[in-house]
Write a structure and sequence with these properties.
Shape: elongated
Order of helices and strands: HHHHHEE
Strand content: 5-15%
Distance between the termini: 65 Å
Number of strands: 2
Mean pLDDT: 80
Helix content: 55-70%
Largest sheet: 2 strands, antiparallel
Oligomer: single chain
Low-confidence stretches: none
Strand order of the largest sheet: 1-2
Number of helices: 5
């Protein structure tokens, strides 16, 4: 009798096991930060400034992106030109040849009249510092607009709750080790 019950239970289990479909566990890939919509907008912005903002449909950010990148680009070009002119003037003063100022030397009026190599070297070194700072700032602005596109794409899917209240409370703990402990807590 027990054996028959055991056989019936086993048959019922095998019938129920064959009638169900197998469960397939889907493995999710761990993507990089450049995978998906946010990553795509960042890569687009790093290649062409403002392209990530256009991809995110954040058209009001474009004038700021173009002003920042264009302004820093112009600042960098001016500083590179000044450095190159002062470098050529310094070389000419060392060689004791007259320096003819090219037309693309902005803000260096009267540089052809300076013939002291020490003075020109100091001016050249100062211009080199400004040139390096301008290049660094241009790179930072370029990367910042890419990060802006990345963060903006992430926040497009951000779920904002209807409850935006802040609760300020105080708590007092009855702890034998620290009996006078009190606190101020903020919960969102």
């Amino acid at each position: 009798m027990m054996l028959m019950m055991f056989v019936m239970i086993v048959q019922a289990q095998t019938e129920s096991d064959t009638s169900t479909t197998p469960v397939v566990v889907k493995k999710e890939k761990k993507g990089s930060i450049f995978a998906g919509k946010p990553g795509k907008s960042m890569v687009m912005s790093l290649i062409i400034p403002g392209a990530g903002q256009i991809y995110n449909k954040s058209y009001l950010r474009l004038p700021f992106v173009y002003a920042a990148v264009g302004g820093m680009g112009a600042y960098m070009v001016i500083n590179v030109q000044q450095y190159n002119c002062l470098k050529e003037a310094y070389k000419a003063s060392i060689d004791m040849t007259p320096f003819v100022k090219p037309h693309n030397c902005p803000g260096l009026d009267g540089i052809e009249n300076v013939t002291d190599p020490a003075t020109l070297r100091i001016l050249r070194d100062d211009a080199n510092v400004y040139r390096q700072r301008a290049i660094l700032l241009f790179a930072l602005v370029w990367v910042a607009q890419g990060i802006d596109a990345y963060v903006d794409a992430h926040l497009k899917d951000f779920n904002i709750s209807d409850d935006l209240s802040i609760d300020f409370t105080t708590k007092s703990f009855d702890d034998p080790i620290a009996p006078m402990r009190m606190g101020f807590y903020v919960s969102f």
